[in-house]
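Observation: inputs received (chain + fe (ii) ion).
Thought: call the complex predictor directly.
Action: predict_structure
Action Input:
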Amino acid sequence: MTDHQTLRPAGEDAHTPDRGERRYSTGFGNEHSGEAVPGTLPVGRNSPQRAPHGLYAEQLSGSAFTEPRARNRRSWLYRIRPSAAHPPFARVDNRGLRSAPFEETVPDPNRLRWDPLPEPAAGTDFVDGLWTLGGNGDARQRSGMAIHLYHANASMTDRVFSDSDGELLIVPERGTIELHTEFGPLTAPPGHVALIPRGVRFRVELAGAGARGYVCENYGAPFELPELGPIGANGLANARDFLAPRAAFDDAERPVEVVNKFCGNLWAATYDHSPLDVVAWHGTHVPYLYDLRRFNVMGTISYDHPDPSVFTVLTSPSDTPGLANADFVVFAPRWLVGEDTFRPPYFHRNVMSEYMGLVEGAYDAKASGFLPGGGSLHNMMSAHGPDRETFDRASGADLVPQKVDDGLAFMFETRWPVTLAGQARSAGHLQQGYDTVWQGLERNFRS
Ligand code: FE2
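Observation:
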């Protein structure tokens, strides 16, 4: 794919909806570039003897140098100070953040569901408001994933975060967040997802009074677009709908606390400047934004609900073909037209483990109790599916074409069981008696 800026000097994407003052480059996995000051991006080489305008050249490697081209991720940054110029880091409180390996609780086969996080204490920013539900794998082995939620009512001003353990897929549920990254800003309202690659520094400003949402911390291979197979060359999440930031920098000579998650723990150092001081960059290891409403939903036009893998937006592959370390799956507005078909998601037991969240509205397999900002965990091989009310309604429905457009649900699906953090097991917002939604499913069999 080609750099959007080369094709459209005005910086406009004709199909990008109004995003205020934000302008983006488009495309997934391509070589993006940008310069906040004209002439600061070297031409024809990455590391000239003297970088333009007295900047420092620095490579950020998100993959090993020698990984195949299709999965190689790296960017070149041209910055006011090199990242190496920083004081020592010291351990700070992890607060609500937990990391893999998860060993605080015994893995639980029960179906579990949580209400939304309670309101945060005053002055809680994005980092302080991270709260871990659970996960799997091992951050030190770069495998597995963690499920976090966040709630915040304060912006990060002189505070910057980065995660050495994995990339962060952020799913806003309430409140628009402004992600100021080393590569420039991304504006992520609910209904969008934003991805911060491993090691990229950023801070989060709130556009309103508060913000809430979900985070998949992916320790494994970076998310990529799923193969399309017989679907063809187009469909699901289209590459051109992914948006990368345009270069912008913070030329700040003031104390800035830089918080780093490293092998499960938070460390912090106070710099005498902002590390968001990248004036120009190019590369493939870049943050991005995606509007879930752009997802091109595939479904049946004959019979049967397809397996929900057809709703995969992004997948983190493992070393086994088709077996994801983690998938991000969206249940977006769509038409249901299946004939002689039970149209909601079917009853299911799955070797993969499923965490579901809800951005807005309702989910078509649950009539009640599954709230925006809440979540459910159906661990490996646990039996789940529509609740009694949904089953009765769908079994008796008149099968005319039906538009499902009253909700936006998603799933983090992962190859290994999810073990809870202790705080998720003992949380006051863990619902008691979730099993009862499947009670009353009567015996209908007549021999
Ligand atoms: Fe399932």
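Thought: report the result.
Final Answer: Residues 293-436 form a domain with the Jelly Rolls fold (CATH 2.60.120.10). Helices lie at 4-7, 388-396, 422-425.
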